[in-house]
Specification:
Elements lengths: L2 E11 L2 H7 L13 E7 L2 E7 L7 H8 L4 E8 L15 E5 L2 E10 L18 H17 L6 H16 L3 E7 L4 E5 L4 E6 L4 E3 L6 E3 L9 E6 L10 E2 L4 E6 L2 E7 L11
Antiparallel strand pairs: 1-4, 1-12, 2-3, 2-4, 5-6, 6-7, 7-8, 8-14, 9-12, 9-13, 10-11, 14-15
Helix pairs in contact: 3-4
Length: about 270
């Protein structure tokens, strides 16, 4: 399966440290070698880098690792293909426009039997189930809300309703953002950490690199990092419970909802 990386913060921040470790999983410390991509929101625009080469070997990923692009929302993906050939058009994250905003989507999972009817408003370019799901999500949102972007809480509730029928039918971990906030769905595995004052030192798991965040931040900064597996080995990451949808805004969790029934706990003696 693939791996996901997201960042949501309250001030424009670069993701160089996290991406340094994450990119090693694309063919070096892990087997996700079927392409990679990363998207940075910058104002109303998106800076998108895609490459079908393994991220651990990619010259483009080396450039991104050393280029401090500052953003409030970032989504990255390294791919281990399950459906669709290894090619540029099948490389996540995917981008579309809706309501005058760019939307970015990346998926870790497999839903080969989900074949929604698309009306042509959003059409897949490649042949992955992930891009087809993305097109269906945006199509469904536009049908529900018409020509105007709804308030953040209404949008989150709609995404929960759209996620519900898919959450129990396959592996459906995903990250979605329109530049305002970041939505994360944990189907099987996702973790997050919120870094805020007092900041401390962090050390990557996949590369012997450390950073003292107290030296590169201000006391008001707040940054949420979401990843399939924790990226550091000396911080307390939070494991999202499978079957939950999360809303991140301004570098913190502002809502979470179940997309699967909660497990029943036996109270018997």
């Amino acid at each position: 399966m693939c791996q996901l990386l997201g960042m949501n913060c309250n001030v424009p921040t670069d993701i160089c440290f996290s991406f340094t470790g994450f990119r090693r999983r694309g063919g070096d410390t892990d087997i996700h070698s079927d392409g990679w991509g990363i998207a940075f929101f910058e104002g109303k625009a998106v800076r998108l880098f895609l490459d079908p080469e393994p991220s651990a070997e990619s010259i483009i990923s080396e450039f991104v690792r050393n280029y401090p692009i500052h953003s409030l929302n970032v989504i990255a993906h390294i791919r281990k293909s399950t459906l669709g050939v290894t090619s540029l058009e099948n490389t996540h994250p995917f981008i579309r426009e809706l309501w005058g905003r760019y939307w970015i989507f990346a998926h870790n999972g497999h839903l080969p039997h989900f074949q929604p009817q698309l009306d042509g408003s959003f059409t897949p370019v490649g042949n992955t189930d992930s891009e087809r799901i993305f097109c269906w999500l945006l199509q469904s949102l536009r049908r529900r809300f018409g020509v105007s972007l709804p308030p953040r809480d209404e949008l989150f509730n709609a995404l929960k309703e759209l996620t519900l029928p898919l959450a129990g039918s396959g592996i459906f971990n995903y990250l979605l953002s329109n530049g305002d906030s970041l939505v994360a769905h944990c189907s099987t595995e996702l973790n997050y950490i919120v870094r805020c004052a007092p900041f401390a030192e962090a050390h990557l798991k996949d590369e012997d690199v450390s950073i003292d965040f107290s030296q590169v931040t201000s006391p008001e900064d707040r940054v949420a990092i979401i990843a399939t597996q924790p990226l550091t080995d000396n911080e307390a990451w939070v494991a999202m419970r499978p079957g939950t949808l999360w809303l991140f805004h301004q570098g913190e969790v502002i809502d979470s909802e179940d997309t699967l029934p909660s497990p029943v706990t036996s109270l018997g003696g």
